[in-house]
Amino acid sequence: MKMNVTKIWSIPQEKNHNAFTDLTWYQGDIYLTYRSCPQGHALYTSSRIVVLRSRDEGQTWEKVFCAGVPGRDVRDPHFLQLSGGLAVYSGTWPVDPNDPRPTDYHNIESYVAFSEDGLNWRGFELLPDTRGIYCWRTGSWGGRYYMCGKNYREIPERRHSKLLASDDGFTWREEATIMPNIGDETSFIFAEDGEITALVRTSGPFGSYVCRAKRPYAEWERWELPEKICGPLLFAWGGELYAAGRSRVNPAAPVTRIYRLKSGLEGGVGGGWELEELHTLPSAGDNSYPGFIELAPGRGLFSYYSSHEEHTKVYLAELTLD
Predict the structure, then answer these.
(1) How many domains does the chain have?
(2) pLDDT digit string (tens) for 214-229?
(3) Is the pTM of this model over 0.85?
(4) What number of other Cβ atoms are within 10 A of residue 191's Cβ?
(5) Do 164 and 175 meet the contact criterion of CB atoms below 8 Å apart?
(6) CA–CA separation, 44 and 100 (whole Å)
(7) 308 sits in which H/E element
(8) Residue 211: which of 277, 162, 247 has the closest Cα?
(9) 229 lies in which domain range?
């Protein structure tokens, strides 16, 4: 895989903290979303979710949506194409004006904004029954929609990575537990038969995990990786699996990396998984949380953020398969 970091996009308020990205195609155009906040990384009511549209494969961008939730911090936006429109989801935290750190785990809520044409947006609207559920990456298979959600409804030190399901993208219910007790941010993909492969960041002193389950997702196999990947992205491209996110092999110098995820499994039993490092992107400090789309066979667009150039900005890299 070859890499060329070609585009940097930041809003006119150059000192904003711009972070937590996702990419998707919709109606022939590329959409990029991220969180922007003039006060920084922590919890602030001034935070906003931004959606940009590009009609020329990421060469130029226009802002089509920018909104927050009153009294709450918004972050970690992720796209999902629904029947009849495009949705962007955001996890939100209640904001304590005296303490911008995340402490009120039980009052997390998840919100959605929706557009039929990609230009005119409705929301943010509260997703029903998501108190204590922090929505994250999304997917679809077999006419249903899926989302991973971090469940804080129980003891925060025992957070669970849950698989949520929906028939319409607005009402969600718990379908399965991907990773109990130490589950955190989770990225997942579907095989043709509906089997899920998930890449899970964990809480505590654990590495990341690869988790797999066949329908109806009642039983999961789990393998620990030697490295923890923060803000993980798992994607299939060119017949292989790739993982990306923040590497903390050197805790003092975290960077955004892309890996090939190699399976030693045969017939789904034994063997384990390995990470083959492919690229370290220009990055340092506060960084990662990538998105990916394929532009054409063998060409892809990769988004992420980093603070290595004074202010925290969103970056785009074009990837090419050898």
Answers:
(1) 1
(2) 999 999 999 999 889 9
(3) yes
(4) 12
(5) yes
(6) 7
(7) none
(8) 162
(9) 2-320
